[in-house]
Design a protein that fits this description.
The structure is a homodimer.
Chain A lengths: L23 H23 L2 H8 L3 H8 L2 H8 L4 H9 L8 H12 L4 H16 L1 H19 L9 H21 L10 H17 L2
Helix pairs in contact in A: 1-2, 1-4, 1-8, 2-3, 5-6, 6-10, 7-8, 9-10
GO molecular function, one term (chains A, B): transcription cis-regulatory region binding
Keywords (chains A, B): DNA-binding
Organism (chains A, B): Subtercola boreus
């Protein structure tokens, strides 16, 4: 048995799935399928590019060439809208005085926009609430996003990681109140009224008084 | 009653469950069973004391004598800890300057305390996230609690209902971050550190700058 198949449970002959040679889209699809299964089975932290590549029957370098990083592969496998997350992260850049307003508006706007952007997030959240395995995946993904993508943008604010995760929790609560439990009058107010009310709270948590 | 009849599929007549006349506890139990079914079937708003009494085979006046109001009957049927909710409502009383701190501490303390207090709330929340029917129940129950129990305590603050529901959403987000998704470092900070960080945000939403 070849060494690289040693811990593969059932090495599927990927090349025999169809009556023609697999093109790039088939390979991408096979990688995403393998990633979804592997993240679900092992969790975000324990899953490795190497193992996902093995499951998909491709080289790890190809997975990296297609998806860049484990983080981005996870986002692609879960259909997480990476553009939207990038806009959210970008809101942390800029003058500290309007930090709360930029972040609040970016966050709430994401949930008012295209269903193709917020529905995968909503689906991940619904799963996380009822399944610890899904919660662990979401947690580890957010962790990676926060630690690498957002916390450094706050510069030398003390307790930046705590502030970012607390502010994110507050904003998640507003989305839950508005989109899931649908509490009045939070659910019926327009976006700008909410931003005006919530932004100072997010500002004080992110930047202090 | 013979042991093998205990888990018989045939529906046993309620009055024959025991070898004595049904006492007050049986009646209370029958009312709670009827309330749970009726709230689930019709939702909180549409369910009536009269109909629940009919389902339970008792007089509506008896339901009111046992449970006082539809709100309290719902709380009892769902095992919602009414004492804990009362402590939360009471935190809205007192000097405006410490409003955010009192409410934040009361809210977060509830989720650090006895599982018998927060588990029914967690169960309701988990159901609400995945079932619109349960979300409607929770929403209508919170609405009744807020409108009748908390908003008047804010006195003549403009937009009191919006402020209370927005602040509650923020605090719910902290609980979700801490107890469900378990985002670091929100999950590992002690209660007082979180209160110190979050209370000014709740203050500014409840009372303005």
């Amino acid at each position: 048995m070849p060494a690289d198949a040693a811990d593969s449970a059932a090495p599927a002959p990927v090349t025999m799935r169809r009556g023609r040679r697999p093109g790039p889209n088939d390979t991408r699809g096979a990688i995403l399928d393998a990633a979804r299964s592997r993240f679900a089975a092992d969790g975000y932290a324990a899953a490795t590019i190497r193992r996902i590549a093995l499951d998909a029957g491709v080289d790890a370098a190809l997975v990296m060439r297609f998806y860049g990083s484990k983080d981005d592969l996870f986002a692609a496998a879960m259909s997480v809208p990476t553009d939207a997350l990038q806009r959210l992260a970008n809101a942390f850049d800029g003058p500290t005085e309007q930090l709360g307003e930029r972040v609040t508006r970016a966050y709430l706007t994401l949930w008012e926009g295209s269903p193709s952007e917020y529905e995968p997030l909503l689906a991940m959240f619904r799963s996380a609430v009822n399944h610890e395995q899904a919660a662990a995946q979401l947690r580890e993904f957010l962790q990676a996003r926060f630690v690498e993508g957002i916390v450094p943008r706050l510069g030398d604010v003390p307790d930046a990681a705590l502030r970012v995760s607390a502010a994110s929790s507050l904003l998640l609560g507003v989305v839950v109140g508005r989109r899931i439990v649908k509490v009045q009058p939070v659910v019926e107010e327009d976006l700008e009224t909410l931003v005006k009310l919530i932004a100072p709270a997010v500002q004080i948590v992110l930047a202090g008084p």
